[in-house]
Amino acid sequence: MSPVLSYPHLSRVSSRIVCKTSNSGGQRIGQVTVKVNGGEFGLSSQRFSYQDPFVMEVSPQRGPMAGGTTLTISGRNLLTGRPSDIAITVGGVPCVISSEVQQGSVVCVTGSSNSTGDHRVTFHYGNSLRHLYDSAYRYTPNPNVTQAVPAKSFLSGGRLVYVSGHNLDVVQDPRMLVTITPYQAPTRRRKRRRRTGDMEGVTDDQVLLNPGVVQEVDCSGTSTCSAKQYTERCEVNSSSLILCRGPAVGPSVRGSQVDVSFLLDNLRFPFSAISPHGAFSYELNPKLYPLNRLEPLKPYRYNPGSFIQLEGEDLDLAITKEEVVVLVGEGLCAVKTLTRNHLYCEPPSQQPLPGPPSGGRKREGTDTLPEFTVHIGNLNFSLGRVQYDTLSPSTFPLEAQVGVGVGASIVALIVLIIVLIYRRKSKQALRDYKKVQIQLENLETSVRDRCKKEFTDLMTEMMDMSSDLVGSGIPFLDYRRYAERIFFPGHRESPLRRDLDVQECRRATVEQGLVQLSNLLNSKLFLTKFIHTLESQRTFSPRDRAYVASLLTVALHGKLEYFTDILKTLLNDLVEQYVAKNPKLMLRRTETVVEKLLTNWMSICLYAFLRDSAGESLYMLFRAIKHQVDKGPVDAVTGKAKYTLNDNRLLREDVEYKTLTLNVLMQGGGVNETQPLPSKVLDIDTITQVKEKLLDQVYKGTSFSHRPHTDSLDLEWRAGVAGHLILSDEDLTSVVQGNWKRLNTLQHYKVPDGATVALVPRHSKHIHHDNHDYLAGEKTPMLEDADEGGVRLWHLVKASEEPELPKHRRGSVRERERAKAIPEIYLTRLLSMKGTLQKFVDDLFTVILSTSRPVPLAVKYFFDLLDDQAQHHGITDPETIHIWKTNSLPLRFWINIVKNPQFIFDVQPSDHVDAVLTVISQTFMDSCTTAEHKLGRDSPINKLLYARDIPRYKQMVERYYADIRQTISASDQEMNSALAELSRNYSGELNYLVALHELYKYINKYYDQIIGALEEDTTAQKMQLGYRLQQIAAAVENKVTDL
């Protein structure tokens, strides 16, 4: 045996000797001999061996510089000496032993190193060293995470998160860590348990001061930490990708701060720092309803070739259709569309096998049918069993054949065949509708990113416009012009702007007669007789009825209480008339005087609501449409635009264009010419279009009526000191091919980006432009045929290249095929425009249909009046009352205002803006109807665009009507008080004498019939109404009467 060196100070007398072994020269084994002074010695009962540890292998052989890699080192005789004296280093960096040392292996965790490359693994046995010679451990560059998507998950977790980066394959233990901290909870610390089981909640409120290094958490004291942690182990897919499943969290996350990190051994990467979508968030778990909601235990009958539609809530908040797995038994149901409330999938064409039974029980009866299951992350929904419908015609029951005669059997068989055909057709129509809806929803999904960018640009523009409006304000019309445009739409000039068309010598007499007529109109009997008599005349056209109603509105404007009383009386007569026929048709059109009176009454009463509440949203929608349409090319001849909602106004050709920024100088009008204003136009804009856009930008704070007209200005291109060129739509340089002449554009003149132009007054004495104040009807684009010998003008597309079917053939097969075959790119343009404007449309509909602020008194009063009329005539059908309310407010007032913003604002909508507003108006009208809109292949594209939104708008309308009905009734006294105030405020705004003179023209035209009607009524005779009318006729027109 080898001698040893003893340590007396560590030894105990008679019980312990501590010594240090010396070199043995080789492996030996034997008893320990202790020799004491005096020659006595003793032998140990145990045998002591000298071993030579040998390090054979390390696994893995590489890991990141940050450390944290768990190494398994194998060899022989590794447990030599005391375990506490054994240490391991890798290139001089300690590797902390994390398990009990075995003879053949040991496990340790690497520390962080300052350098990369191969490093030697060394065992330290006191002063003795043993090295791994055959191979080395390599420190690699640290893994780096560059991106993590997606950024949302349901509370149940399980959504696959893709973590991208570099050197990710060196990570040994990747984990996704979610820390939930209540917002108002105090910060307390407790030591965190490392690497607990998957999905385990651990109390912790770790704060990372140095991102990248995992720091231990210390929850001091005995209190429980307020934060919770949830971890989920990830899977390394490649050197550039790690796949993680989002951890499931508790419902407390809704009121807490959520911090998500990725733990890559010793490195930590916060999600918010690497995600393009910001911080990670959790959404409430989705809900899915059974296939058979009414009878969940019954199998769902599926017709092969169609889709299965699922209904639920919050389905697409934190998942995409590609991530949802839907199974029918063992077969896959391919998900086609996923929306907030619907999931559409296409099952296998043949009924799949049912799959293994759940719970190990034996299948019986209907259990042989496949189960319909939906897997969304960690959520699994079992929604019922599916039975494929073979649609085989059922044979006629044998009992019935025996019980009835041959003739009855034939009749019954015919009925059965009709039912089967109807059923098959109905199912086919439903499948067609669902397919169209799925195609639309897929298209909407595909253009969603484009819509986001377009919407962001539009909102930036709208914010700039809002800041401009702070100074200038929204260009509302004053009450007089508002009333004239509502009362007399389509008139180039308001009849109230004219003076009395009488000789000066007779003016006083005529005015006196008109005052007498005003007094006569105060007779309710005369006024009702007058209106009914006119309406009974065949030559009294609908246009005359509307005109007379507006003249009466102006004449009675100073007595709105009386006007309202007349309206109620005439309305009562109208209700009695329609109740006897079809009450649902009442107020549908403007075919009677009372219907136009109602339109005018609503307009008078809601003017203040327009200015104070709804006007801002409508103006923002109008400006958003105008800005969006003007961003793309618009054909000046056909009026068709690239960006629109109206497929009839869609420019279907792909026209190349680019945006130019011109520096605009303006002469006159108080504008400083020395400071050019940068303005954006398109290089393919006609010169008139350029002038309109420049005027919009130069005079953006000025209302339309106070701007110079485009016809009064020339566009002058200035290049250098002497280079001034007047640009125009047509000149000697215009390109002419055959009988086609192309309108000039900036591209034609080769005007470069950044060019300087000036708007200068036109010197021609023959400037002609229309007064647009009262052009409220349909506007027409530039005429196709010029005056020059049949030469036809064109701008972007020649009219003959876009054939339009005539109206009488729009329902033909060819037209329907054309509607079905609309190229997807054009539909994408419509959807992109729709998505960009969606917020502004929603804002307008919300403010119109909101009861959060007080509902206008007139609306409540009139709706109560309709409810009373329905009750009085025994009408209990809620659909009829709903139609009455819709026809009296949305159809009669709001559609008119939305489609014609020039009625309330000092603006002039262009044809292409008007086309977009028409679609939005029709959408609002469809939302107010009770009928279900079943869409199919032949449905107009405009209706398909808002097919998903109309049900939501319908709910808003129904809630609006219900909320109004539940509010406190408006009394006649309150209404009369409000009407009297309106009469006082606007008494001098309208020229009632001119209105009375125009009204007298109808009295003169039907003078004999009116006199006859008054003479036949005994009450009118007693009141001498005919005599008074004769006096008025004598004064106004020197009419010879029987006086």
TrEMBL record:
Every IPT/TIG domain range: 52-140, 142-283
One family name in Pfam for this protein: Plexin_RBD
Region (Disordered): 345-367
Protein name: IPT/TIG domain-containing protein
Keyword entries, A-Z: Membrane, Transmembrane, Transmembrane helix
Positions in coiled-coil regions: none
TM ranges: 402-422
Any one GO biological process: nervous system development
